[in-house]
Write a structure and sequence with these properties.
184 residues; mainly alpha; N-utilizing Substance Protein B Homolog, Chain A; 8 helices; globular; disordered C terminus
Length: 184
């Protein structure tokens, strides 16, 4: 606890800005997780996105006045469904040894969501989409899911997101030692 005469090392405005950024990042993570769960239901249940979204909206407690989080998750899942064919081709191209239908449903849908964000999420750098997907894979997938998802998404990013490196200076690739060829 600083004394009354102690100098503050970080200005209050910086702390407030940092706190707002953390809250925003946490909200985006929640949106991704909800969108993954919606997309998983569409895929595994062979259900139309509209039906899954309607059921999801009905499940939101009636006393909630702010449903922006849920609506953002629905929009993200809808975007993934809208671009499913193109996204699946990219995943299949990066995971040549693993036919899409043989991939674990958790891994498949996490990667679908991440590729959608990489290509159509205007403010989501590929490196962020990959990191968030790996975290979801560790939470919902198998012991090997994180490495597998990282390898496949790194290959997709290198092939389809080359412009990120030239505009941000970041390299959109998997961490060393990870490979799309590893078993899921």
């Amino acid at each position: 606890m600083p004394t009354s005469g102690a100098a503050r090392s970080t200005p209050i405005s910086s702390n407030d800005e940092w706190r707002r950024e953390r809250v925003a990042a946490n909200r985006r993570r929640q949106i991704r997780e909800l969108a993954f769960r919606l997309l998983f239901q569409v895929d595994v249940g062979k259900l139309p996105m509209a039906d899954v979204a309607a059921s999801f909206r009905e499940a939101v407690p009636r006393d909630r006045t702010d449903t922006r989080l849920e609506e953002a998750a629905i929009r993200l899942a809808e975007m993934a469904v809208e671009h499913l064919g193109e996204v699946d081709e990219m995943i299949q191209g990066a995971a040549e040894k693993w036919p899409l239908e043989r991939l674990a449903a958790v891994d498949r849908n996490i990667m679908r969501l991440a590729v959608t964000e990489m290509l159509y999420g205007h403010d989501v750098p590929p490196s962020v989409a990959i990191n968030e997907a790996v975290e979801l894979a560790k939470k919902y997938g198998t012991e090997d899911s994180g490495r597998f998802v990282n390898g496949v998404l790194g290959a997709v990013a290198r092939t389809h997101c080359a412009s990120e490196e030239s505009t941000t200076g970041e390299k959109p690739e998997a961490t060393p030692g990870d490979s799309a060829g590893q078993a899921a």
